[in-house]
Amino acid sequence: MDGQSFGPEIDPETAVPRIDARAKVTGEARYAADMPLTNVAYGVLVTSSIARGRLANANLAAALGVRGVLDIITYGDADALAAPKFGNTAAASIAPLREPRIWHDGQIVALVVADTFEAAREAALRVETEYTVERPAATFDQAGTELLPAVGNTQRHKDDPAVGDFAAAFAAAPVTVSADYSTPTQHHNPIELFSSTCVWHGDELVLYEPSQNVHGFRNELARQLNISPDKVRVVSPFIGGAFGSKGPLTARTAIVALAARKLNRPVRCVVSRMQGFTTATYRAETRHRIALGATPDGKITAFSHQAQEVTSRPDNYVVGGTETTARLYGYGAVQTRVELVKADRNTPGYMRSPPEFPYVFALETALDELAEKLNMDPVELRRINDTMHEPIKGARYTSRSLMACFEQAAAAFGWDFPFPPPGTARDGDWLVGRGCASAVYPTNTAACTARVRLTADGKVQVATASHEIGTGIRTVAAQMAAERLGVPLDAVQVAMGDTNLPPAPVSGGSNSTASVCSTIIKACDAIRDRLAQFAGKAGTNAAAVAMRDGHLVFADGRTLPLADAFNSGRTAVVEEYAEWLPKGVDADAAKKLYAGVTSFHGGTEGDTVSFALGAEFVEVRVHALTGEIVVPRIVGAFSAGRIMNPRTARSQLMGGMIWGIGSALHEITEIDLRTARYVNRDIAEYHVPVNADVREVEVILVPEQDDDVNPAGVKGLGELGNVGTAAAIVNAVYQATGRRVRDLPVRIEKILRV
Ligand code: MOS
Hints:
It is built from 18 helices and 33 strands. With 754 residues, it is of the alpha+beta class. Strands 3-5-1-12-9-10-11 form a seven-stranded mixed β-sheet, sandwiched between helices. Strands 7-15-14-13-8 form a five-stranded mixed β-sheet, sandwiched between helices. A five-stranded mixed β-sheet has the order 17-18-29-30-33, sandwiched between helices.
């Protein structure tokens, strides 16, 4: 299909094009800031030029003199707003304009509103701010930072996984590796900028804002505005890239809503690329100390993972990936610890595969170092330590196909061991190296609701307030409904991205396909049962077991056309509203969902553990004279339970691996240590892979059936692809050059031994 291959045994018939593809490519799809509205006023933010201190004065005279300026909201004008509540739905507790305190560089200090964007921007440049300046601490190792254990100081990281006596096991291990790794600050740069458009209809607010969590936004925004959540509607039908950055509500939105209420006029604020770096979230820099002990034949007997992450002064944000690294292999003794370093920075947040990207980078690089010490094929090292039971609680993996992924990816890649000595394989002026690493991501699910309607003419409407962040969720939802109700795909319409629809969880943590499809199954099965009841009253007694090709199918094999079932019920429409809860979820999970709070289940909780897994192999070439690094070839094989749509799955995984190339070689937000200020705050200077950096990328989908994980059998793969890529690249760079780079990104100066 279109020259795409998905791996053996994957049904290409399910690789249907996205049902919203045409709308997207023709411009018919409306993104939040494109919504046509009349009489819109334009808002532009003014942000602080210091990282720590107080706003002493804002002189607005010059700004107010700009023609077309309608209002300027600054410190003291927003006291009607409640402070954001850091946690499930708000990005940070920082309450700009309500407190004079400046917590970080680029904090909002004013919103200028004008008749035109140009006037607002000019006036924003003319706002004169004065500050009382304090010396900031930018990051690790700076005077004034504060160190805290994550356990006890954060909601998310409840314990540091550990088992056995690590110190004794490590001391007794004949072969050991111990090394430090780091990952830098990174910023999501979705092509669609951050924006809020607020329209009041009397006391009711409509917010158009790209969102991964419309019900979360509704509830948190209503709280900040001191109004009832049912007075707030959030509309976000399409999102032009999110990656976690549009998951939590940021402080901007309530300020824009306030301006719109004050002016009695719609206000639209599109945040500049540069201001997006400081008014939204980002990936915090991390440090890792890994220690591994093993027997000479490669059995790991001791594993330690100690990590530190930077967070902001007011909020203890943590990613805490030891939950995953501690469970990836059958280690003997395990010890872990996560600590936070508080600095004068904006509060970090989720960015694609939040914990796994940095934490698995450290582990998978250390494993490569261990394989080298053992003089062992890195694939063999992973085979020896493969396990069906995670080591911390001994919980069973609901399914685990890691080695099948390694086998298929290695075969497609043409992997050979032993390697030539590091730095010796050459092709002309290019040094050639190969490396591999595991990819892993926990299977999260969350309480979800959906309404499914089937009409007598065989048409289906699915409604659930999930979010199309580019993953193809509308398409897989339609596929599941079509399959379950026995109708063609083009008979199904799907509505998403609006708080007028039944709530779905935040579209994060790779949970949406599993949660939404499990909910659709529940609704469709209820429709089937009701139709069977109608048929039963008309004399067809058995329970229907399925719906297929426009028919109810009974246990004894008899079938009944849908139209006959509808006639028996004297109805033209059957509609079911389903609330689906993951196994073992708290009793109040559904109630919380309506309040906009998502709680994830699955992954490492419960009596079993569930992870999607993969193996990535890369070839790198490093120029012997200039140190230039290219990645000509990358092959990934992935297993993630049921693949709803190989085309969208492949696209997610390929995008993830390409991001992995960026995270290994390009991406870093540089910080001026004196001012705690981001230096390269645009996508001219913040580098991501471009076409010239991306050569051959091959995705193999390894079939896997997991009936335990959730009713849909789906493990989720939106974040899986870019886990492991950076380690595979670093491992290949080592083979090419003999230079072990433990601090991302790998750059020329680290190769040239300056
Ligand atoms: Mo993803 S970073 O969980 O949106």
